[in-house]
């Protein structure tokens, strides 16, 4: 049976990294602070308080809209989305409904079958609600604690058209979006909950299922892969797929049905009477966009002469791209290879971001590799030693110091020649075998030299030198 | 130097919900002047209930912008006045803490919803009062109690700290025994406030003038039509003649949109109210639960117990108007009707400077007289148009019917509160 096409659309909530909240002056930097300490009458929704629009948040949202090639509405409008929930202190969320900030954009992604444009339906501004901490389960908990520090954090909601064709494409879209937001400097991807995703997924010809509550990048692919399998199995068994909302349970990697009455809301949207329509025409032109991932990738190829693949990898995150540009002067090609092919793997293994690697040390390492002072094997070892030191919270040694301490310097030409001569004398049987045409004998002899210099020579190079020496003797 | 005064009024009309026995005040244009503040305006450290059980015990941590301005002007804020719960009413009978009585006849209502403020001023318990006017809530009690009350142009006074009933309609305004002191109070509270996005940079610094030579007054026939007590209409017509004798010209006009005004008003205000009042869910205000319940059960219970009947009625009406499938038929249609009211005012006020008519269709009702909500709503017909359009309107006493005062309403152009005040002043100075 032919597999039905997968159709996915995403709704992404992304916190804007402004200093103050969306509608008041409270600080957004509450990461390690006590609950309910970053609050005021406005974000607590105290009776009589009124919202004041944070211009910076609008500017940030306009940057995103411009970067995603959206049509920006000269006049947009805030609306109230009414629903009851304890962490929603006004019992309505100020959001945008039928007149959003921007519409009809697009983002280029590296799709399953080459590059593809994913259409953006709309981008609108809204405020985050507070946070509920349930003691016990939601149904039968003892009590629920509420923290309004998060209430009023500016959010943008980005809605895509149902253009994504696989869970992997959904992840790629998110990666590209995240990189774009980082480049715009409007978003802190390391903040917990700074990006939250709801996904609509269907198999062609069947009902659509909404998966809510996905709060990590990796979670999106996992949740959607689970859904594809679940829906395919249902169809295979001849069952109908119900149109419903499901929740992603990150810990178990599954989605569960959530058909409770309280979630069937009529949000009774209407224009927020405390705010004037938002007119942005005069601001839009003043917004200058920085270089975005696609442009940077092209520049990396032309400026540093590196491969398009490497350039794509290295521009996949703002900090990574900045790291590369900082270390490239040592040698652009080697820096690209060593960052993309070695460093990222080592970082990933240790759950590190690019910031864990001290740029100066990496540059020095590249310089050592370039000067042929160490072997690739030694270079990897040095990289690991540095990262392990960082992991243990120690001051990492400089690469040269590690080379000296462990004697990792590539043996010099004279030493190698001398060792080759010694091995030829010490291993007459193998030499004889070589002359008899047994090529494994050469490998054995290379091994003997490697042993003598404790691996500080390049085996390929040794191979040539040994061959030259033995053939000359004839 | 801060000074103090004692405030122990003989409040036999139940104008106040809270009084401050020892009031501190400072220097300024209102130094030592006693001012009462309606209980839907937040006062730091002073209980603010909107005359609702659901806010009993709520002590705001901040001052409304107007309260800050009053304090800065040296005013002595002597207490919080009674009102219809959350401003929903025309008589101040809808207070959870009992009605306020009319100082001129204790068997009658003072009007509402700023009935406490009007009664406090009318009974001479304090010099001035602050009210709020969503559909007539300043002008109606001013008319019923025989004092002056102004609903300013929308945006002229900051609403920051006014506990919202219907945000797009209401304004805080001054109430006083005479136009001069009303004008003085208005000059203190008017002006822009960055915390209210709908406020406008139009401060007020005007001395009322009684010269109204050549002033053109529009007289809409609808203001004297069906439902208006003929005796009240007669007193108001005489008042308009007095203005003519002072040099004003009158011009008959019509406001066809009046027939939609009440519906547009009640759909809009109940819709906004249903959203504004949703936050009173028992989580942050109101008494705690006696036993643990699921949160939606707890919400229903708190709201059923905490809100009065009229408030519940309006929340249900508003929820219905905004519901999916009804939004277009009610809320949206009301906005179209609202635009028609604005257009009518704009058209009429092109030819005339102000519009004059009665404030209320009748004199103060007897307590309990308007028990049918619809009858009560109908009595707002002459005051709601100014709120729908956002234009300024004042009520100034202009005579009596059956011994009870009648209010002359003067409505002006946007941000022409000065002319509205001048017209009222000219009439007042001529004497009733």
TrEMBL record, chain A:
It comes from Methanospirillum stamsii. Heterotrimer of A, B and C subunits. Allows the formation of correctly charged Asn-tRNA(Asn) or Gln-tRNA(Gln) through the transamidation of misacylated Asp-tRNA(Asn) or Glu-tRNA(Gln) in organisms which lack either or both of asparaginyl-tRNA or glutaminyl-tRNA synthetases. The reaction takes place in the presence of glutamine and ATP through an activated phospho-Asp-tRNA(Asn) or phospho-Glu-tRNA(Gln). Belongs to the GatB/GatE family. GatB subfamily. It catalyses: L-aspartyl-tRNA(Asn) + L-glutamine + ATP + H2O = L-asparaginyl-tRNA(Asn) + L-glutamate + ADP + phosphate + 2 H(+); L-glutamyl-tRNA(Gln) + L-glutamine + ATP + H2O = L-glutaminyl-tRNA(Gln) + L-glutamate + ADP + phosphate + H(+). Residues 322-470 form the Asn/Gln amidotransferase domain. SMART domains: GatB_Yqey. It comes from the Archaea. This is Aspartyl/glutamyl-tRNA(Asn/Gln) amidotransferase subunit B. InterPro entries: Asn/Gln-tRNA_amidoTrfase_suB/E (IPR017959), Asn/Gln-tRNA_Trfase_suB/E_cat (IPR006075), Asn/Gln_amidotransferase (IPR018027), Asn/Gln_tRNA_amidoTrase-B-like (IPR003789), GatB (IPR004413), GatB_C_1 (IPR042114), GatB_Yqey_C_2 (IPR023168), Gln-tRNA_amidoTrfase_suB_CS (IPR017958). The lineage of its organism: Archaea, Methanobacteriati, Methanobacteriota, Stenosarchaea group, Methanomicrobia. Its EC number is 6.3.5.-. GO terms for biological process: glutaminyl-tRNAGln biosynthesis via transamidation; translation. Pfam families: GatB_N, GatB_Yqey.
From TrEMBL, chain B:
It holds the Pfam family Amidase. Its EC number is 6.3.5.7. GO terms for cellular component: glutamyl-tRNA(Gln) amidotransferase complex. Keywords: ATP-binding, Ligase, Nucleotide-binding, Protein biosynthesis, Transferase. The keyword Electron transport does not apply. Heterotrimer of A, B and C subunits. Allows the formation of correctly charged Gln-tRNA(Gln) through the transamidation of misacylated Glu-tRNA(Gln) in organisms which lack glutaminyl-tRNA synthetase. The reaction takes place in the presence of glutamine and ATP through an activated gamma-phospho-Glu-tRNA(Gln). Belongs to the amidase family. GatA subfamily. This is Glutamyl-tRNA(Gln) amidotransferase subunit A. It comes from Methanospirillum stamsii. The gene is gatA.
